[in-house]
Amino acid sequence: GSETVTWDAVTPSKKDSLNVRTDRQGNVYALDGNTSIVKLSADEQQLWQVALPVTDPNHVVRALDVDEFDRVYVGVSAGGEQAKAKLICYEQLPDDKTELLWEVIPGAYIEDLVVFQDKLYTIQNYPDVMRSFVRIYDFIDEVEPELIQTWQVPHPANSIAVKKDGSVIVACEAAGDTT
User: Fold this and answer.
1) Cβ-proximal residues to 89 (8 Å cutoff; 6+ apart), any chain
2) Of the candidates 21, 105, 11, 95, which has an alpha carbon nearest to the alpha carbon of residue 51?
3) First-to-last CA distance in the chain?
4) pTM for the full predicted model
């Protein structure tokens, strides 16, 4: 059977959380306000909190994922200067510590991201030119991930998923009347 568990935890800032993920041990990672992330244990105890190193105080982070090695990936999705939006990876260390592993500044907003087979799949929106792309990064466990593949998708793109066979699915807003 299936079981549903409901949480009612409050993040430290007491602001809205724009995304949440769980890891293989049942810990919860919640975006806290616009540019912070908090890790909560399965029994709702705060383990750590990180203020994300954004360069614009108006940036808003919505993209979040945690891989099987407990690396945490986040991306600036809106607000502030698009050219300074970052894609960021943190590595978790013993004793509930974190370390910034890498930052990439793609010049786009990162609307969504997902890790699949040790690669980071991202949706990157360029609202200034009304373009969106899937961008895939390899070597995400090292200090300089490598962009290995990119293709354009309808703008704006909202979400990305990767099926078990590696097929990529992207959710985009309707283009409206194009006739």
Assistant:
1) 71, 72, 73, 100, 101, 102, 103, 140, 145
2) 11
3) 48
4) 0.91
- Average of pLDDT values for 122-139? 97
CA distance 104 to 85: 9
Of 111, 105, 12, 123, nearest to 56 (Cα)?
A: 105
Q: What proportion of the chain, given as a percentage, has pLDDT over 90?
A: 82
Give residue for tokens 């013993």. 94
- Give strand pairing partners of 11: none
